[in-house]
Amino acid sequence: MKKAELLFTAILPPLDFMMLLVAGITAYFLRINPLVAQYRPVLFHLNLPLNRYLTLIIGVSVFMLAVFALIGLYRIQLRRILLDDFLKIIIGVSAGIIGLVFYSFFRSELFDSRFLIVIGWVAAIIFVSFGRFIVHRWQRYLMKKYNFGLRRALVVGCDGVSQKIVNYIKSQSVLGYRLVTNLSQPDLDEIKRKVKDPGVEEIILADSDWPKERVLELVNFCEDNHLTFKFVPNLFQTLTANASVETLGDVPIIELKRTALDGWGRIIKRVIDFVGALTGLIVLSPFFTLVAIFIKRDSPGPVFVHLKRISQGKEFRLCKFRSMVDGAEKLKENLQAKNERKDGPLFKIKNDPRVTKIGKFLRRYRIDEFPQLVNVLKGEMSLIGPRPHQPDEIAQYRKHHKKVLAIKSGMTGFAQVSGSSDLSFEEEIKLDTYYVENWSLAMDLKIFLRTWLVLLKDRSAC
Fold it and tell me: Which subcellular locations apply to this protein (predicted)?
């Protein structure tokens, strides 16, 4: 493990603690500011003077740091994704504020300042995020100017995956890699020579078809020479990504879980889906009425269409605003020759003649998909998940494709925010499979935020 990774990680806890204290003090003095106090007199300082307030803030800050540690904000790593950190900061600060509210309630130390709690919450998120942004910029500057923290890597492999890794390392300097070389089909002696000469620190095996014996030799070599070893998993390793071990008597039994979405995670996700869908339907109901009027004026036919889809092995009726001429499904067979997705069972035409004028607008901004909130409310879909699947598509799926059916389909998902219109069918399946196997609330929140960026930038749906 490089010193740079340890250094930049060690900086974070004291920096976060300092920023949390500054945020709490800022919220306090904003509250007692005369401009604010003239609208609502300050009362809480009578039973919570500044010295007791500072003691309370220190305690809350320590609690927040503990939450930060639990959710991975202090995991030792060189490259940090600011958006991921930001989402975790929101979770950690929110947990701290909730803890403060419960503490005040049970200790009967309630003070009349909702302003202080809200501003403290906002300020803590802003200050901690700003501190980490400064560290991130400083880290990038040292890396670019002095090569501080760069990891010299050797990539092994000759297929498309290895080339994709090589190209990505070359194009993304913020990854912290310096590519030494790419060996296509080397033997172990050749790797040893390349490692000793330029000072390689990390080996990435991108060829998943390497014989196990050679892989073990390479792993042992890396261990003996204190090198970091990383590899691209093959299909079997992907299938065993979610495994748990238990014992029956003295016999260990491995359970292969279809998805990481299990237990409390599934419950929390359903609650979020229900509340989000209900809120969305209430807020958007006037807009739905307006869209319905335009659809009826544009072409004959119903406002909504109900399409057969499969989710978790069950058939349901997907609700959408009608964006095509009435009876579009019956015309699909005549257009099969124009299908642009030849690599799989999906059907897609860039300029589909069945799409109406208003339908082009609805599809451009994904408005036609908004009624799927009804499906989410009913529990047939989720806000975030793999793309809904048609029965005739599933009939053509191979065995490993069906992994994406393990959880509910979503209105948006990992593949959709990763350029689904430009992805091959296999690439789309891999992304959705990754989501199924590695689900987390933080991942859902990240996909949700990225969805809005895609809506503003991507016009491929029309």
Answer: Membrane
| 96 and 63 Cβ atoms separated by less than 8 Å | yes
Higher confidence at residue 97 or residue 262?
97
223-232, 307-316, 428-437: least confident range:
223-232
User: What contacts 309, CB < 8 A, 6 or more positions away?
Assistant: 315, 316, 317, 318, 388, 389, 390, 391, 409
User: Residue 308 forms beta bridges with which residues?
Assistant: 317
d(C-alpha 437, C-alpha 403), whole Å? 9
Cα-Cα-Cα-Cα torsion 44, 48, 53, 59, nearest 10 degrees, comes to -110
What is the C-alpha separation between 115 and 104, in angstroms, rounded?
A: 15
pLDDT one-digit tens code per residue, 360-379: 899 888 899 999 999 999 99
CATH level 2 (architecture), domain 151-232: 3-Layer(aba) Sandwich (3.40)
Closest CA relative to residue 68, chosen from 8, 122, 1, 14: 14
Task: Return all residues near 10 (Cβ < 8 A) that are at least 6 apart.
Answer: none
Task: Find which of 98-112, 230-244, 398-412 is predicted with most confidence, using mean pLDDT.
Answer: 398-412
| Burial readout 22-49 (b: 16 or more C-beta within 10 A, e: otherwise) | bbbbbbbeebeeeeeeeeeebebeeebe
Q: Identify whether the C-beta of residue 457 lies closer than 8 Å to the C-beta of residue 427.
A: no
What is the residue whose two structure tokens read 């005369």?
Answer: 34
Sequence-distant (≥ 6) Cβ neighbours of residue 131 within 8 angstroms: 15, 16, 18, 19
Q: Are 382 and 409 in contact (CB under 8 A)?
A: yes
Question: Does residue 31 register a pLDDT over 80?
Answer: no
Residues of the chain with CATH 3.40.50.11410: 151-232
Answer yes or no: are the C-beta atoms of 195 and 228 closer than 8 Å. Answer: no
